[in-house]
Every structure is written in C-alpha cells, then in structure tokens.
Design a protein that fits this description.
Length: 128
C-alpha cells in the first residue's frame, strides 16, 4: 500500500480511533484547526482511490442524506505494509525489523507461537 500524505494520515488516524463511520462534516469539524473542508474532501477522494477507506452507510443530514467513511485497512495492516515496502528486496532490513520486534518487552509466548506457525506455513509454501 502506498504511503499516506500528512493530511491523509490525519484522516486515517481519526477514522482508526472511531467505532463508527464519520461524515465529511464530522471529519472536517475535527480537523478544522489543521485542514480546510475542501482539502478534507480531496484527501477523502484520494484515500478512496487507494482503497484505504470505504463508504459507510448513508446518514440523514437535514433534508438530504450524506455519505459516511470508515477505514478499509487497520492501522496495523497499514504499518505492516510500510515495513514490507521498505524491506522489499532487502532481507537484512526485514531481519532487523524482526530482531527489533522480538526485543520489545511485550512479546508473549502466544505471539511467538503464532509467528512460528506463520513462518512454518511460509517455509512450506517456499519449498513447494
């Protein structure tokens, strides 16, 4: 997945922190200190084109209905895709990332078991 521009990332951070879809007006109101309404609209269209957000249910606004937006990818998926992009073709970078991850204080046996399972699946795929 492509990297997000600063304004796009602000919108994504906002959507990742919500439990429901937001309207353009709600997003604009929450970002009014840093981003204008028209710019929010441009960023939303760009994020839609990238597949990073999707259109949620329509909501009534006065006499009309308006679109809502929600994240189509989680924050973890986005961050993982950025690591993959950086490590593409550079196994040392990927090894460094895993070493850093394994050195983190919150790695559990459950996490290690899941990683081992996925590594074994990938190993089988590569050897087939």
């Amino acid at each position: 997945m492509n990297s997000f521009k600063k304004g796009e990332l602000e919108i994504m951070e906002l959507l990742w922190g919500q439990e429901r879809a937001l309207t353009h007006a709600e997003i604009s109101d929450r970002l009014k200190e840093t981003t204008g309404r028209n710019t929010v609209y441009l960023h939303l269209n760009s994020l839609l084109a990238k597949g990073a957000i999707q259109i949620g249910p329509s909501v009534r606004r006065g006499r009309t209905y308006g679109r809502t937006f929600l994240a189509a990818v989680s924050k973890a998926e986005y961050l993982a895709s950025q690591v993959v992009d950086v490590a593409q073709g550079d196994s040392k970078a990927l090894q460094t990332m895993f070493a850093y991850f394994l050195g983190a204080g919150d790695v559990t046996n459950e996490t290690l078991d899941e990683l081992e399972k996925r590594i074994q699946e990938k190993r089988k795929e590569l050897n087939s």
